[in-house]
Amino acid sequence: MEHITLSFPASRSLNGKALAGVVGSGDMEVLYTADAAKTLTVDITTSVDNSTARWTALFDRLNMQNGLPSGQLIIHDFGATPGVARIRIEQVFEEVEHA
């Protein structure tokens, strides 16, 4: 297991909390909590070693397309594909945005 902490400048703010996925499902769980900071802090626990570059690229892409909200994102990854990871992350942002 590898633990990765990333930080990105936030370009928007949201309010609330959201959860997408389930650890027991075998792929990943994402928990998001909004805050008033100007950054998005991402804490990732993953079963895939040496994946920092993959996660950084994923968040860079999300930032270019929609901007990242401020807050705390906790990810428990158990080998999810990059596509599933992106879906789960977008789900928590969308859930909070439309709550």
Automatic annotation (TrEMBL):
Where's it found, cell-wise? Cytoplasm
In which domain of life is the source organism classified? Bacteria
Q: Which residues form a coiled coil?
A: none
PTM field: Covalently binds the prosthetic group of malonate decarboxylase.
Per the UniProt record, one Pfam family is: ACP
| Residues annotated with O-(phosphoribosyl dephospho-coenzyme A)serine modification | 25
Note whether rRNA-binding occurs among the keywords: no
Q: Which UniProt keywords apply?
A: Cytoplasm, Phosphoprotein
Which function does this protein serve? Subunit of malonate decarboxylase, it is an acyl carrier protein to which acetyl and malonyl thioester residues are bound via a 2'-(5''-phosphoribosyl)-3'-dephospho-CoA prosthetic group and turn over during the catalytic mechanism.
Q: HAMAP family, alphabetically?
A: Malonate_deCO2ase_dsu (MF_00710)
- Give the similarity note: Belongs to the MdcC family.
Under NCBIfam families, the record lists: malonate_delta (TIGR03130)
Name listed for the protein in its UniProt record: Malonate decarboxylase acyl carrier protein
The species this protein was found in: Siccibacter colletis
What's the encoding gene here? mdcC
